[in-house]
Design goal:
Number of strands: 7
Strand content: 25-35%
Oligomer: single chain
Largest sheet: 7 strands, antiparallel
Helix content: 25-40%
CATH topology: Pnp Oxidase, Chain A
Structural class: alpha+beta
Low-confidence stretches: none
Mean pLDDT: 89
CATH class: Mainly Beta
Radius of gyration: 17 Å
Length: 135
């Protein structure tokens, strides 16, 4: 019975740590030289900003969904025309979800997260979107 209590308490502490970490990231949205600001419209048409860490692969710009709070990504799927602010430049782009295939495999391998960050974030499923320029 004691081992059950210990495991239960450890599980609660872990879940609490993940919730605290994920909530703080969503709230403070740390910005730096390597981050981008993505403005995605919600159902009412109001733009909502999200600070993300982009990465480039084969000349394309991508963002990843690496956390449990992912309402911004659901909005992006509903409204893929977004405003991107990156390296001092703002422009409209089309967000293209990468769901399967060789592109997903290549991105997943190139942008692999370490065990510690996956553990800290509670092992959320990862999803990716490519940000294509609108001509």
């Amino acid at each position: 019975m004691k081992i059950f209590k210990v495991v239960f308490v450890l599980a609660l502490v872990y879940v609490g740590t993940v919730v605290l970490f994920e909530s703080s990231i969503g709230y403070i949205q740390p910005q730096g030289a390597g981050t981008l600001l993505l403005s995605v419209k919600d159902d009412s048409g109001e733009a909502r900003d999200r600070v993300l860490s982009p990465f480039e692969l084969n000349g394309q710009l991508y963002v990843a969904v690496n956390h449990w709070p992912r309402q911004w990504y659901e909005r992006l799927l509903d409204n893929p025309i977004v405003t991107l602010t990156y390296r001092g430049e703002s422009k409209k782009t089309t967000a293209v979800p990468i769901m399967a295939g060789s592109e997903l495999k290549e991105i997943s391998e190139a942008y692999e997260l370490g065990f510690f960050i996956r553990f800290l974030t509670g092992f959320p499923p990862r999803e990716f979107a490519r940000l294509d320029d609108i001509p």
